[in-house]
Design goal:
Helix content of chain A: 55-70%
Structural class of chain B: alpha+beta
Largest interface: A-B, 64 and 57 residues
Radius of gyration of chain B: 28 Å
Strand content of chain A: under 5%
Number of helices of chain A: 8
Helix content of chain B: 10-25%
Oligomer: heterodimer
Number of strands of chain A: 0
Distance between the termini of chain A: 38 Å
Largest sheet of chain A: none
Number of strands of chain B: 30
Largest sheet of chain B: 16 strands, mixed
Chain lengths: 185, 456
Amino acid sequence: MQEPGEMSASDAKKRAEFELLVVEHHVQLRAFVRSMAVDPDWVDDIAQEAFLTAYRAWASFDSSRDFGKWLRGIAANIVRNELRKDARRQRILHTELVELMIEHQTKEEEPPEPLALKVVRRCLGKLPRESRELVRARYGDGHSAPELATRFGLSANTVRQRLARIRLQIRQCVESGAMGVTANG
Amino acid sequence: MGDRRFEDLMAGMLDDELTPEEWVELVQLVREAPERQRQLQAHLETAEWIAQAENELRDSPRFVAATLSRTEQDPFVAGVKARLDETASMPRRPWRRRLKVASVAIAALFLALAFWLTWFQQPLVRIIELNGSVQWMGDGGHLETDLKPGRALGGGTLESLSVDSWAVLEYREGTTITVAGSSKLTVVDGPTKEVRLGHGRLSASVPPQPTGKPMLVHTPTADLEILGTQLNVETDGSMTLVNVNEGRVRVTRLVDGSVVEVPADYQAVATVDRHTELRASQRPDHARVWRSEFPRDVQYGQWQPGPGDGGELRAAPLLLTCWRPKPLLIYVATANVAGKNSPPLLLNANGRFRVRGSLDSPAEVVFGLTMHNPRGGFAGKYVASKKFEAARGKDEPFDWELPVRTFKPLEGTFPASPAGLELVDCWCLTVRENHGLTVRSIDLQCKEETINHEDK
């Protein structure tokens, strides 16, 4: 007999399949959530909610459809719901910007291919040393542009411009190298 | 002009802060041209990829584990669902049809209640790693000793009871707190992220916190405000030692309200003495030699005057009630190494411990180490052991040499060797019986690692 809290074989199978999908889709789903102007501190939370909603609604998912697209639809709905919340409890950066970005995102036809973080890391590894340090301080340590300006002896504006250029370089590199790499993180 | 201004505002949004007027301007520029939406989307997505790749608190394994841990069935929801399934499978009788609408309404009410409860009772923290004797007392005062990784917790008190125990808690946004050894941590359920360290040690990795909402750590002698950092805190009730490895922490000494900002690589000690200045001082360089000094370094055990200069430390009983299948009694003596007066000790592969002490009867003695990453948080626990066959008594003390190489990690996830890590404390113990284990001194020598050219 199954003990309370013990998983049945079908539950275990469902969970194992679900784990593979989380591994495959989480990088791009989190990027999608962020791209709707969600507060960066809440991106993971909202992405997890999207996965959980998908997990609970598993039975209603038509397996002939694209799982990534379904997941993005769920995430967009969660972010849409944020707009109805009291401003203090919203997990987004700016209401009107989120409205615009959701509208834009839902017009997108196909979701991108799953992405592995190792592709991103490989591209980061190709950056010159100073750019690499700047990226690490910004994204690894969480320093803002004015803090980095003091640390690197630059103006805050220069730091922001350099980070913007680096993002473009990384995007170009990822888009040219992501093909054929499995999304195992 | 529009695009240049748009790029400036977009960069400001991504790497700085925008004023309310700048937000309005950015939204207007985005609204004007769909191409700008695509540009903004690309920068936001790429920033997110990089953040995931660079911030170890957000890497793939951690995110996947956290997501899976949230799929665990909530017992309340499972209970309600089971009742509803039961009701649905009952044979229908004609008179019941009249109640169909009412049943559906009740079911909807149950589901709404379940949803409300799961939504608003989302856990504050989860246990993501656990070892040894760790217990939890929730708000209702119920004591739980059978904790497992993945367990969701609300407000309450976590106690790590033994020298070889530790637990790692994780908040939903990624903050992790590790308590190790004998430590008591209360997680406060409230609008701010807040914990109280009653005694013992914690290591915290705190990602940047929302502006104006620092994480708060309270100890018996100090209040700490943390905006995003890696730090280690230790308190014994009369003093609090704060070591900051990354970021910046504001420390308020409770006895007089004096405040100091502690930057990375600095430390501060907040005691109950109002006459000394509360200040941040640079962490001293690593030492490679250490000798215990009792009673200064006593962390657990009974100090007593004895033959050595500083007396001796006798192992004291400790009942591990969380041990399965039944509680385990150990006799343990623990020496604090990384105290407020000591420089951090970095072990290397050439290092050797020398433990002098005595036993009243033959026993296996376990010698263990608690390690931190250099200028970082909790790294692991390591042990070595030896059987002392002859009962020697106090007149014939033992002299035990332990090369650093002989220590093994207590958990497979820890680095294979303590070499290269900072020593926090060390302990000696015997299991079940009192063999009169007494420690007179512990010495550590770590010679510089040199390359022997003749071996090449």
